[in-house]
Structure formats: C-alpha cells, structure tokens
Write a structure and sequence with these properties.
The chain is of the alpha+beta class. It has twelve helices and twelve strands.
C-alpha cells in the first residue's frame, strides 16, 4: 500500500491519509510563512560628484574662477537631483550630472578636454549599474559630444562592455547619436596648455614624465558621479579627456571597469580621478568595493585605505567618490584638493574644492 503510484491514489480510499501525511505539512508551512512584502518606496537618495583631483593651487585660484567652478558643480548636482527627487534612476542621475560637466569648459571631459600630442581630443567614459553589474565603456572617441551617453548605449544596446575609437563612433552612428566637429572640444586654454608642455620639452627643461607635466600645468579634471536612488539602486560613471600631451591611443582608468569606475548594490559605487596608470594598477574602484564586502568597512573607510595608503605606495595622486545603499558617502583624496560635491533628498548642495571646503 505504501508503494502505490500517485495515479492510483487519486481513487484510493487512503488518499485522505496520504494527503495528511505528505502534503499537509507543506500546506501549513505556506500558511504560516507569509509572502515577502513588496519593496517599500525609499525617501532617501544621494548624488555625489567630482570634477577631478589635484585642482589649481589655492594661491593661484582667482576668486572669479573659484566661483565658476562652484557654480558648475552645483549645476551638475541640480541636474541629477531633479531626476532623483521625481523617482528617477541612479543611472539617469549619474548620466545627467556628468553630461553637465562634459558640457562645461572648466573640466577635463567633453568640451574643454585636454589635447593629445597631436593637438586632438580623445575621450574616454564608463558607466555601471549596481543592480545588475552591467557596464558600458568607450575610449579614444573624437566626435561624441557627451561620451557618457555613448557609454550608456554600449551598456544598454550592445552585448559588449567596451568599444573604442572608430568602432565606438560607428556604433554611435548606428544608435543615432549625433557627432560634433573636433573643434567643438578645443578651448584656447587647452591649446595654450599643450603649447606650454611641448615648449618645455623642446627646450630641455621638461619635467621627468607626462604625469609631472600634468601636475605642474593644470588640474586633473576628470569628472564622475555616483548615485543612490529611491529604489535602492546604485550607479557610477566617469568621463575624461585623459592626460595632456598623451600619446594618441592612450587609455586611462576612467573607462576601465574596476579601476576608475565600479558599482555593485551589495557594496558601493565608486568613481576615481587622478594618476590613471596607478589607479589601473591598484584597481582602485574594485578594491574599495572589496574592502566594503570582505571587511565590512564603510565606503569612506575603504576609500581612506586605498587612496591614502595603497595609492600612495604606488606613487599615485588622486581621489575617489563613493556611496553605498545606506546613503554613506566617500570623498577622499591625497592631492591638494578635489572638485567635489553631494546632495541628498533635502536638496541642500555641498560643494568643495580644497580640504575642508
């Protein structure tokens, strides 16, 4: 009797007993354990941005120029905030904030990016979704007005993570993303910067490395953003023109997932800026995420270890911004300063350039 097939039990007198013995416990368990409640809408969100570490030395910063930087940072924060307060996604907020900084001639991204050794811009960008860990990146593009938008398209509409140079621009055309003339990106300031560096080289008084050239001539200027939205999702993005007088084809950390850009809902979202070669070698963004995951550190504590210890050991200078799902943020740097800011649900903007302000 105990070995009867289920098909015979359907018309068997012992079927009620079989139900009690085999199915009732599961049935009662389902009653006793209610279904998970639907996710509640969060009231809190945060957007953190940077406009590059290094900055113009305080004594060389005219008050008018400082005001322009602070206004540009506030405008970028407002663009992202307007989306987050109306239940927009962290990805959209990151894109909007970075787009504002790419359009500003003050930063080393998009319009106003540094020039390579041939006098042209080559732009890199990346974006990552903390909910899915999908990512998109582009490098060495010359005609894309907002590189962060193309990186987003690579993530959303291609099976790839990174596209570069002509291939990236061809994909942009396929997606209907408008191109702009190369001259759009070039500013008088960047032209003079390149001329100054190359003049130093030809005179024999050049600094020892391209990195030292960048340090003594201008701020790093890479831009980035991280955000937490009301759905509890994180995102990170970074955009840059790289290093002035770089060799054509050079790609730094900004476009490399895990180096200059990383996001994971389980840990944090990070965007880095500074000496790209060392940030790549130290895998800065993912290293911060790993410290949050494996050591239980906050983003600020993890960033402090990586930026002020590990990166320094490599000889690198720079900084990071970060955020986690609890709304904890990071804005650490080991340089003179970092153009940075954040805004929460209360709409109050915090912006700073140097340590403490």
């Amino acid at each position: 009797m105990y070995h009867m097939k289920s098909s015979r039990l359907e018309n068997n007198a012992f079927a009620p007993w079989w139900f009690l013995r085999n199915l009732l416990p599961e049935f009662m368990s389902n009653i006793a354990t209610p279904a998970p409640a639907a996710a509640e809408r969060r009231e809190s969100f945060v957007l953190v941005i940077h406009g590059g570490a290094g900055v113009i030395p305080r004594e060389q910063m005219p008050p008018q120029k400082e005001g322009e930087y602070r206004a540009a940072l506030k405008a970028a924060l407002q663009a992202g905030y307007d989306l987050l307060k109306t239940n927009g996604t962290s990805l959209d907020a990151v894109s909007a904030a970075i787009r504002m900084m790419e359009d500003s001639p003050l930063f080393n991204a998009g319009h106003g990016a540094v020039l390579n050794s041939e006098g042209e811009v080559e732009l890199d960008a990346a974006i990552m979704d903390g909910a899915t860990r999908k990512a998109g990146a582009i490098a060495a593009v010359k005609h894309i007005k907002n590189p962060i938008d193309l990186a987003r398209l690579v993530m959303d509409r291609s099976p790839h993570v990174m596209l570069v140079a002509d291939g990236a621009e061809a994909f942009a055309a396929e997606q209907g993303l408008a191109k702009v003339a190369r001259q759009y990106f070039i500013t008088e300031h960047r032209q003079k910067q390149l001329e100054r560096i190359q003049r130093e080289q030809s005179s024999g008084s050049k600094p020892q490395s391209i990195w030292q050239q960048e340090r003594v001539t201008d701020s790093f200027g890479t831009v980035g953003a991280v955000a937490l939205d009301r759905q509890g999702n994180l995102a990170a993005g970074t955009s840059t023109g790289g290093i002035a007088n770089k060799k054509p084809g050079r790609v730094g950390d900004s476009a490399l997932i895990g180096a200059g850009t990383y996001a994971d809902n389980a840990t944090c979202a990070v965007s880095a800026t500074g000496h790209g070669a060392y940030i790549v070698r130290a895998v800065v963004a993912h290293d911060i995420s790993a410290l949050v995951e494996y050591r239980g550190l906050s983003p600020g504590e993890a960033a402090e270890l990586v930026v002020k210890m590990k990166l320094v050991e490599f000889g690198g200078e720079g900084g990071v911004i970060g955020a986690d799902r609890k709304g904890n943020i990071a804005m650490q740097f080991n340089s003179q300063g970092m153009y940075r800011g954040f805004v929460r649900e209360d709409g109050k903007h915090f912006v700073a350039i140097y340590a403490g302000q």
